């Protein structure tokens, strides 16, 4: 049990020892010797206790101090108390640091703490992955030695952190990071780097999309406007002009109409929540219907269109979407194949999957365009595509339909020789072949 230090008791003890020594000296008549022996004994005891204190502090694993009496007990207890208080504080501090670390690791962004000279003091795991920092090896190194983009350096040194900046990632130039810097703990800065690649891409897509749609609408509107300005004043118009004007205006109106329809189809497919696994689509019937439309479209060019269809092969999916994908591919083959060409449409089982393909011996496409064909409004030859009434949205629609049906479009093409557009439905969406009946007789 810990007892309060009492100066009075300690003095009493000292006076007691001194009286004992003096009494012993007076009794033996050897006062000097008695004082010397008494002093030596006190010194020895003091050194012995100092030795034990030193041993306990540096070499002993025991937390509690050795049992002693007198003033030494209070010294030991005092040290023990201080140690315990420090230990509890350290534990609490450790828990706070642990919580901070766990919190910063849970943040979905890269975080770096730098001092007022821009030297790294700490970073989380994402910072090592996204910014290429090595922890703890890079502690103390300047952050602008890692993020070297001039825009970042300028921002960092200007010290105006009211707005974030967007800069390519230091480890992967195709990624865009948003850097945000804020004061932290008095004379430190906290840098947060967030991957905004997808957001930037979406923003660019949105801008491109608006620009493309306006561009597509501008030409037909200019044509219509031109005719509408001259038509009301009949006088002086060359013979047959009116007929030509109305014909041209009808073409341009149809173009706008088709563009708006295609855009609606695209946005409907993108937002589609229809379940693909619930309805069975009779693809052979759909293809036969498309063939009738294709024959009408094909009147001018007289291609030889052949359908190779497995009549029983059905799939699960969304019929309107699939019809749109099939017809876009078949009509493209008609548009981009010179007159009297050959077009083959295939619908057959390939392993456990159902495969659709359209093969033509038409224009073909140079390799450099193949990767971009399914982008919205991408056309190999814009003038040519416009002439056929194309909007550059057909293959984008196909791509979305197929992605909704868990598959992808494959394009094989050789410039000047022809193309093949194909895709296979996954096994889960392909209706299994009926088993042949077993004759038991
Ligand atoms: P468009 O409405 O212009 O036809 P698509 O998205 O359907 O737009 O097609 C994109 C481009 O791909 C077309 O402009 C055309 O250049 C090319 N293309 C598509 N199908 C074929 C094909 N069967 N043969 C040659 N080129 C094709």
In brief, what are we looking at here?
This protein is of the alpha+beta class.
Counted up, domains total 4
The first-level CATH class name of the largest domain: Alpha Beta
Strand content: 15-25%
Uncertain runs with pLDDT below 50, 5 residues or more? none
* Share of residues in helices: 40-55%
Sheet/helix structural class: alpha+beta
Tell me the major beta sheet. 5 strands, antiparallel
Report the span from N to C terminus. 102 Å
Overall pLDDT confidence: 90
- The largest beta-sheet arranges its strands as 2-1-5-4-3
Please name the CATH architecture of the largest domain.
2-Layer Sandwich
DSSP strand count: 12
